[in-house]
């Protein structure tokens, strides 16, 4: 029972964090067709900027300023970098963001050093919210869930209830048409890219003090975010949400299951002695998302809720 | 008498939208058949259905009495049906000669061979030359396809289409965007290139149609409203109604 | 009427042109490789040269699917690794003399690598090659992560974190090479590099090779010349995997150890950079890329800590300003010299080069100062006897001035070109 409860709590909070990170990528990918390889790098920048700002002022100021800063960096990257490469096709754009990821990581190493920085949970939130089955659940995680839901609601509101959101939704699936209707599509692209990066930065700000803030953050989170976006389906924020929660739950539950393959498949003669038999479900947890990715791409390339294929 | 190409009760819907509605047509071997109709009538969809890019919602397409609907496009092509595209669909990063050479490979039994040198194969070279000559592209053989002027690209499009020696040729608006002289040359090329073969051609230029076609079908809103020899179509009331304001009436063409 | 037997020979390149464009470069390449040992190179030189040979074959194999096939893969190191691991095991079987392996010379282990890579390509490629584009790229990423994780689960094949090691000085000595001293290993590497290059070049001259290019250009059209684009991609994928495995086999013999790191996303990313920087639209592009990047990886890291940063900048610069890569730049240069106005062309070129060098100077000064400052050891950047720390005005002058001048100069050179 306790495995289930903790699996659920951790899974949902991690899933929401993933959604914060992947919602930005979904927006960018759906609208511009660019699979932003550097998306997790903006996530990392969010954490580092938050660290710096928290260091000189407070976490609460960082909460508002850091994502904006990251968004601005994103907008500049789009305006002066991505836009130029756009003419050379999707592969070139992907490669550009690939190189950008490398670059951001190295610059971060230079400015902040190669080891982790001490980005800590603010004292105000650094307590145990409640106790279940003898283990505590941190209040900060509740805060993360709260912020993530607020962001979700804000995003939904922006897209479904404002005029700007309507235009963005249209541009998500039919950018050319929106251009023909007279809207400044390059400006929209830049704005959306900036918002997407800002969301990633927000996720980094939130996650950087739970997990470690070091230059390897981006490389660790990056691939999983792609899995979420692809599994969720293009053009679909709902799909990204579903996929995030699914993967969050999947990983957190799997980690708690210590059963080995021998335990599960003993009936076909697998024993603990063989290599295959000794693999435990929990050791598979980090790669389950990729298994899901490959299976999804083979059998249902449009993802859970996407309309077009990749 | 067997038809070269036979459509029976062909239907194609995308979701609730029915694009092709109960189309039936029989085309005799060696016949030159034109399809005309206002924009949006479904001509491209029809071509896609016949050539295997779309699967019919219901109904069948038969090539020489063999059902081909539902087969993948390359299988249909291997059975002897080839098509061109409205927007030039050539290999832009290769020269004209390489384009045509790729087109002849399969018919000469080259398959997916990775053990043979493509350059030393005499049969491939000869056939490539033949096709280039037939389409008057020999002096442009080493020009990269992307650098060709528009009319030559269309000619290359036709060259690749006939290179494999298919018996049934589908041409989708081959003279689109051409000047009068270019059109005349294109018609001449089409006539030479499809001699003895069955031709199904979509066109908007009435002059071309009436010059080339043995029979004409008129497609409106996914249905064939008339199939007849050119003179019959000219005098057909339903056809004139459908075309009112859309196209130049046949007798107004010089 | 025209004479067919004579005229189609007019279309194909003449025998002389064929020799110049095709055979001659390979002969020159082989001659260079032959001549290198005669200059009495150092051990370091040999080490780098061997790594270059391996990377050349690896990068060329990657370009079979990227440049010629149009498929972007993020997991090509998987085939390098699986081929290499198989060769590694075979090396141990040769040492143990088990079965027929007792008679196989270590010299031919790269062929075992080829077989391993091709087999892996056949199995993994089957579901992967159904689609192209981003779908394929994502599948390759997922597969790479899965295989890398699996490498830590199956110790018997992958050897866990320490990997599998072996001894190449066993079995029959081919060409009287014991493969002990480093200059003997050189011949091994040189041989297989040439074999790899010739093999992959020959592939582009086959029907399948041409179809692969056609599929990259226009997969839909390929259907209408009677070929299944999926099948074309799949077959090419198998060959690309095979040649990657060949490189893996070369590495197995060269380093006598293989670890799961060789399968990770890091080498997969590196081979992508090698091929792209070299130039994916030219056959020789990846060769240039492999040579340059191997050099950067080995030697540049001795000069500066920030070599990865420079690599990132180089890569982005190529993507943004020179998408045809180094090969594109080199061939463009020679084309320009043969063009209408060589003097003017050369002048503009030199201007641009000067501009780039100035910008590079500014960048280097900035990066080197920053790195030392960030390390916090109080180290200061001291090139050519100048003392440049983060507070001195000279430092910032040396950053900003060359950068600005460089940007202005390259802009000017480009405007010259446009205005012509």
Average pLDDT reading of chain C: 86
What is the count of β-strands of chain C?
2
Give the distance, in angstroms, between the N- and C-terminal Cα atoms of chain C: 45 Å
Note the overall shape of chain A: globular
Oligomeric state of shown chains? heterotrimer
Largest interface: A-C, 44 and 42 residues
Please characterize this protein's 3D structure.
The complex is a heterotrimer of chains A (310), B (254) and C (420). Chain A is an all-alpha fold and 310 residues long. Helices cover 71% and strands 3% of the residues of chain A. In chain A, helix 1 crosses helix 6 and helix 1 packs across helix 9. In chain B, a hairpin with a 2-residue loop joins strand 9 and strand 10. Chain B has a six-stranded mixed beta sheet with strand order 6-7-8-3-9-10, with helices on both faces. In chain B, strands 2-1-4-5 form a four-stranded antiparallel beta sheet, with helices on one face. With 254 residues, chain B is α/β, with parallel strands linked by helices. By secondary structure, chain C is an all-alpha fold. In chain C, 72% of the residues lie in helices and 1% in strands. The longest helix of chain C has 34 residues. The two termini of chain C are 45 Å apart. The N terminus of chain C is likely disordered. Chains A and C meet through helix 3, helix 4, helix 9 and helix 13 of A and helix 6, helix 12, helix 14 and helix 16 of C.
Task: Please summarize what this structure is.
The complex is a heterotrimer of chains A (310), B (254) and C (420). Chain A is mainly alpha-helical and 310 residues long. Chain A has helices spanning 2-32, 39-56, 59-86, 90-112, 139-161, 163-173, 175-180, 185-207, 217-232, 237-256, 261-265, 281-284, 288-299, and strands at residues 128-132, 135-138.
List keywords for this structure.
heterotrimer; A: 310 residues; mainly alpha; two-stranded antiparallel ribbon; 2 strands; 3% strand; globular; B: 254 residues; alpha/beta; 6-stranded mixed beta sheet; 4-stranded antiparallel beta sheet; 9 helices; 10 strands; 33% helix
């Amino acid at each position: 029972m306790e495995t289930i409860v903790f699996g659920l709590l951790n899974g949902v909070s991690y899933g929401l964090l993933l959604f914060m990170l992947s919602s930005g990528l979904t927006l960018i990918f759906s609208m511009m067709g660019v699979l932003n390889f550097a998306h997790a790098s903006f996530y990392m920048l969010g954490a580092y900027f938050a660290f710096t700002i928290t260091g000189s002022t407070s976490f609460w100021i960082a909460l508002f300023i850091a994502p904006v800063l990251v968004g601005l960096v994103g907008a500049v990257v789009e305006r002066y970098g991505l836009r130029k490469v756009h003419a050379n096709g999707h592969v070139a754009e992907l490669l550009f963001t690939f190189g950008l990821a490398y670059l951001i990581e190295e610059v971060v190493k230079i400015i902040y050093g190669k080891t982790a920085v001490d980005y800590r949970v603010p004292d105000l939130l650094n307590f145990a919210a409640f106790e279940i089955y003898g283990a505590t659940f941190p209040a900060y995680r509740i805060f993360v869930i709260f912020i993530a839901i607020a962001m979700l609601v804000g995003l939904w509101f922006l897209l479904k209830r404002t005029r700007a959101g309507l235009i963005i939704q249209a541009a998500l699936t039919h950018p050319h048409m929106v251009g023909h209707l007279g809207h400044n599509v390059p400006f929209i692209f830049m704005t959306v890219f900036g918002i997407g990066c800002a969301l990633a930065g927000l996720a980094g700000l939130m996650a950087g003090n739970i997990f470690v803030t070091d230059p390897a953050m981006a490389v660790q989170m990056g691939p999983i975010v792609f899995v979420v976006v692809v599994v969720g389906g293009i053009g679909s924020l709902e799909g990204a949400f579903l996929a995030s929660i699914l993967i969050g739950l999947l990983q957190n539950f799997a980690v708690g299951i210590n059963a080995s393959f021998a335990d599960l498949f003993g009936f076909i003669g697998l024993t603990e002695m063989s290599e295959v038999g000794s693999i435990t479900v929990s050791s598979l947890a980090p790669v389950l998302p990729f298994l899901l990715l490959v299976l999804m791409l083979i059998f249902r390339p449009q993802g859970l809720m996407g309309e077009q294929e990749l | 008498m067997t038809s070269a190409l036979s459509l029976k009760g062909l239907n194609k819907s995308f979701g609730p939208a029915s694009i092709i509605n109960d189309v039936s047509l029989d085309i005799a071997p060696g016949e030159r058949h034109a399809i005309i109709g206002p924009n949006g009538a479904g001509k491209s969809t029809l071509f896609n259905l016949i050539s295997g890019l779309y699967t019919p919602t219901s109904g069948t397409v038969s090539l020489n009495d063999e059902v081909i609907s539902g087969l993948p496009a390359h299988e249909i092509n291997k059975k002897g049906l080839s098509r061109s595209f409205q927007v030039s669909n050539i290999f832009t990063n290769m020269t004209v000669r390489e384009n045509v050479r790729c087109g002849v490979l399969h018919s000469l039994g080259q398959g997916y061979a990775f053990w043979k040198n493509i350059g030393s194969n005499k049969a491939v070279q000869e056939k490539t030359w033949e096709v280039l000559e037939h389409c008057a592209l020999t002096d442009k053989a080493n020009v990269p396809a992307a650098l060709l002027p528009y009319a030559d690209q269309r000619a290359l499009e036709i060259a690749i289409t006939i290179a494999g020696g298919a018996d049934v040729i589908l041409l989708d608006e081959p003279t689109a965007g051409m000047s009068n002289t270019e059109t005349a040359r294109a018609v001449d090329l089409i006539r030479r290139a499809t001699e003895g073969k069955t031709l199904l051609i979509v066109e908007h230029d009435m002059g071309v149609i009436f010059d080339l076609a043995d029979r004409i079908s008129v497609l409106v809103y996914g249905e064939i409203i008339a199939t007849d020899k050119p003179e019959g179509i000219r005098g057909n009331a339903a056809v004139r109604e459908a075309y009112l304001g859309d196209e130049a009436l046949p007798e107004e063409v010089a | 009427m025209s004479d067919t037997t004579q005229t189609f020979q007019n279309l194909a390149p003449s025998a002389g042109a064929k020799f110049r464009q095709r055979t001659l470069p390979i002969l020159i390449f082989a001659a260079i490789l032959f001549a290198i040992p005669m200059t009495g190179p150092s051990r370091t030189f040999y080490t780098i040269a061997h790594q270059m040979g391996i990377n050349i074959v690896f990068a060329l194999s990657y370009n079979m699917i990227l440049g010629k096939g149009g498929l972007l893969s993020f997991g090509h190191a998987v085939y390098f690794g699986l081929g290499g691991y198989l060769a590694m095991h075979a090396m141990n079987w040769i040492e143990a003399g088990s079965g027929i392996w007792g008679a196989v010379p270590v010299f031919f282990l790269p062929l075992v690598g080829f077989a391993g890579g091709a087999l892996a390509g056949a199995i993994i490629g089957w579901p992967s090659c159904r689609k192209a584009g981003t779908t394929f790229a994502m599948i390759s990423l997922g597969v790479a992560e899965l295989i890398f994780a699996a490498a830590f689960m199956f110790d018997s094949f992958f050897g866990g974190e320490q990997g599998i090691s072996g001894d190449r000085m066993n079995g029959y000595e081919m060409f009287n090479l014991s493969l002990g001293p480093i200059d003997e290993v050189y011949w091994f590497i040189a041989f297989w590099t040439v074999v790899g290059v010739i093999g992959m070049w020959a592939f582009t001259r086959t029907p399948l090779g041409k179809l692969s290019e056609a599929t990259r250009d226009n997969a839909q059209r390929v259907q209408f010349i009677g070929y299944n684009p999926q099948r074309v991609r799949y077959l090419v994928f198998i060959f690309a995997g095979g040649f990657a495995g060949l490189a893996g086999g070369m590495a197995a013999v060269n380093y006598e150890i293989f670890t799961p790191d060789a399968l990770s996303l890091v080498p997969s990313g590196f081979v992508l950079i090698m091929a792209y920087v070299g130039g994916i639209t030219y056959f020789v592009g990846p060769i240039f890329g492999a040579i340059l990047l191997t050099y950067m990886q080995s030697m540049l890291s001795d000069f500066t800590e920030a070599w990865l940063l420079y690599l990132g900048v180089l890569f982005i610069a190529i993507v943004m300003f020179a998408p045809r890569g180094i090969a594109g730049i080199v061939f463009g240069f020679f084309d320009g010299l043969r063009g209408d106005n060589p003097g003017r062309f050369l002048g503009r070129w030199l201007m641009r080069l000067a501009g780039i060098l100035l910008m590079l100077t500014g960048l280097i000064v900035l990066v080197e100062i920053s790195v030392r400052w960030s390390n916090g050891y109080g180290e200061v950047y001291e090139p050519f006897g100048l003392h440049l720390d983060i507070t001195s005005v000279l430092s910032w002058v040396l950053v900003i001035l060359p950068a600005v001048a460089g940007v202005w100069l390259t802009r000017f050179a480009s405007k010259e070109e446009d205005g012509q």
